[in-house]
Design goal:
165 residues, alpha/beta, Ribosomal Protein L15, Chain: K, domain 2, three-stranded parallel sheet, 13% strand
Length: 165
């Protein structure tokens, strides 16, 4: 094999396809648009969900539910994960969880769930705890620290209305 054979056919700048430039070009006359119909005309475009006249899937499937734009984004972590990733006596914070890749992405509230076993005494900071998680953390001699949740807008408005004493 020779070097000039290896690079054959590789071009830095590919020439654009010149449509409608005679029969010898292979893209002459109809220029790849076919004969007649809306697709052959200038200015033609179709809706992205158009399915050739069939009732589109988007319209066949019933509307259901809604997305609550004010819902809090809840990140969950299990007691078993804490046991595997922390040493006895350590403080479990939001920062330490993100450093250890246990609580990824953006979230408003962290909830500790009770799946798995906890054998170490840990001090756990979170916004919410399930009943089983509370039992397991207290059984192992650990401590629960409940973080304050975000204050709702309505509550802030209520506080502003009331005169401070």
């Amino acid at each position: 094999m020779k070097i000039h054979v290896v690079n054959r056919g590789i071009h830095g700048h590919k020439k654009r396809k010149r449509l409608g430039r005679g029969p010898g070009s292979g893209q002459g006359k109809t220029a790849g648009r076919g004969h007649k119909g809306a697709g052959s005309r200038a200015g033609n475009s179709q809706h992205p969900t158009f399915q050739g006249g069939t009732m589109p899937l988007v319209r066949r499937v019933p509307k259901r539910g809604f997305n609550n734009r004010w819902a809090l984004q809840v990140a969950v972590i299990n007691v078993g994960q804490l046991d595997a990733n922390y040493e006895a006596g350590e403080l479990v914070t939001l920062e330490s969880l993100s450093d250890k890749n246990l609580a990824r992405g953006r979230f408003d509230v962290l909830k500790v769930l009770g799946d798995g076993e906890l054998t170490k005494k840990l001090r756990v900071q979170a916004h919410r705890f399930s009943k089983s998680a509370v039992e397991k953390i207290q059984q192992s001699g650990g401590e629960l620290i409940v973080l304050p949740a975000k204050t709702p807008v309505e509550e802030k408005k209520r506080q502003q209305r009331q005169p401070s004493k």
